[in-house]
Description:
single chain, 361 residues, mainly beta, four-stranded antiparallel β-sheet, 2 helices, 2% helix, 44% strand
Amino acid sequence: MSNRHLLVGTRKGLLHFTLRDGSWQYDHLSFEGIQVPYACFDARNNTLWASVDHGHWGQKLHRSRDQGKTWQELETPKYPETAKRKDEPAALDLIWVIEPGGVDEPNRLYLGTNPGGLFVSDDGGDSFVFNEPLWQHPSREEFWFGAGKDTPGICSIVVNPQNPKHLTLAVSVGGIYTSLDGGLSWEGRNQGIQSEFLPNPAAEYGHDPHFITQCPALPEVLWQQNHCGIYRSTDAGLQWHEVSEKDGVARFGWPICACETNPEVAWVVPARSDMSRVAVDQSLCVARTEDGGKSWQSFRKGLPQSLCFDIVYRHAFDNTYEHLAFGSTTGNLFTSADGGESWASLGHYFPPVYAVRFYQS
C-alpha cells in the first residue's frame, strides 16, 4: 500500500510530512536554514527534486532517491553567453519551478527560471540544455518584464499527460506559451485575457499569469490565476474565458488547483487585490467552483476569520483527490480531507511557505 506525503518548501528549509492513521505527521527537515523555492516528486523514478536558494552562493539544484534522507547536488544550469537581457549577459537568478516530462520520457526534466529561461534535461538532471526557441521568441524583448521580481520568470510548466510533446508554460510577465513539438517551437496562447496594466489590455503578449494548471483527465481544460482575474480554457489555451466572481472573493490571487478527474472543479485561495495583498476582509477562505467557474462557493471552517493577513504564493497550494493543502506567507499550514470544505492546521509557526506539493510512494 502506498504512502501519501507532503513537501513544504519554506524560507528556512524543506519540511517532510507523511499521512499516518488519517493525520499528517512531521517526518524531517532538509536544508535547514536555507530557502527552498520549489520541491516536487518525480513518480517515474521515485526521485525528489528541490531548488535551493543559498542567497550569497546562488541557486542550487538537488535530487534525492531515498525520500529526502540524503540529497545530491547537481551542476546548476547556466545561461549561454549568447543569452542577453538589455545587452547584458543573462544569469540564473532563480529556479522557480521543476516539472518532470511525460511517462514515456523517463529522463526528461524541465526547469523554469528567472530571468525567463527554460532548461531541459534528457538524462535525469545530470545535464541541461537551454531552450533557445523560447528565448528567441519575437515577443520576449518587448513584452517580457519583471512583476514581483525585477526580471520575468517561468512560473508554471504543464505537460500534457496524453501527449508529452504538448507543453504549456506561463511567463510572469509575458503570458502563456505553448509548444506542440516538445519545445522546438512556441506560440502565444493569450486570446481572451484582459490585462488592464497594458496599453492594449487585449494585447497578444505581455500578460501576467500567476499560475496555470490542467485537469489531468481532460488536459485541454486549463485554469489560470492571472494578475487580472481567474481564467479557464477548454481548448488547450486557444481561447480563455474569465470566470472571476464579480461581487465575490474569487477575483485575485496566486495559486489555483484543478480537480484530477472533474474538469468543472477547481479551487483558489483569494487575496484582496494587487494593491492590497492581504486576505480579503482580514479573513482567510478557500473558494471552489463545481461548474467551470460559473459560480464559486467560499469555505472558511477551520481557517482564521479575524485579523488575518495571510496570502498564499503561487506554488504553495496543492491537491490530490479529496486532500488539499496550502501554506501562507506568515507560516501557517492547513490541510483539508473533504475537498476544501473544512480545514485543519498543521502549525502556525513555520517560516514563510513557498511551495506545497503532495506525492505518493
